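Hey, I'm writing a tutorial for new members on how sequence and structure tokens pair up, and I'd like a real worked example in the thread rather than a made-up one. If someone can provide the structure for the chain below, I'll link this post from the tutorial.
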Amino acid sequence: MIVPNIRNPFLAALAHALQQEMFSTGRVLLLGDSNDNKEREQEILRTFIERRVDGIIWYGVDRDVDMRDAHAAGVPIVVLDKAPGGSEAASVFINETEAAFAATKHLLEHGRNSVGIISGPRKNVNSQDRIDGWKQALALKEITASDRLIFEADYTRGGGYAAAKAMFSGTVQADAVFVSNELQALGLIAAATESGVRIPQDLAIVCFNGTINSAFSHPPLSAIEQPIETIAESSIKLLLRSTPFAGESIECDFRLRRRASCGCDYERDTFDRDE
């Protein structure tokens, strides 16, 4: 498996689920962490090919990944995202534009009128997908999507913290924000606490790629959750097929977990307990 940063709790949870599923087939999962570096990502790919791995599960730094070496070597690849156009890789994914749309729409349904977004790096395709979903939800309410409400940040706690500080000091004030990953949201909460911004009273939040950590933040984070176990099972089923699967894709459903950060009533349930 190739990931951009295993410190991301979502990727760690996904790797754990894949390891469990893979072990049940009599195989083990090797992990390569590219540290959000596309050159290192390619180096890990070449190393895996040289080691004659049975297959590769790829969660890339971005969607425009170069898989030609793997295809030439006959190594099957499953991408945990929409596969690049013309690729022979199979893919397992959720629709990130629809997920961002659902999160933003939920904030608007709480009566919020100035909904911002903390995005990932604007050059990344997945960042653009999430921005597009945010824009589509605003358009549904005939609200103009202002660039002044887009706060670009790395997918880290520090990135979310810096973006939140910029948001709080800006001339355009948001009363809600869709945050593009859980780590950014945790950084935002820290910045809000320091700045005297109350969540959700002053600022409602929904984040993307929530994990069990979202249930234990303060306040608990409303989040778009991916079906990690289903993704793991589907990925390995595709990877171990005996017949070619060039271009085959499986789209998985996502869910919006409603907690206190958006203003929903919330009581911890059995799904919000650490296991």
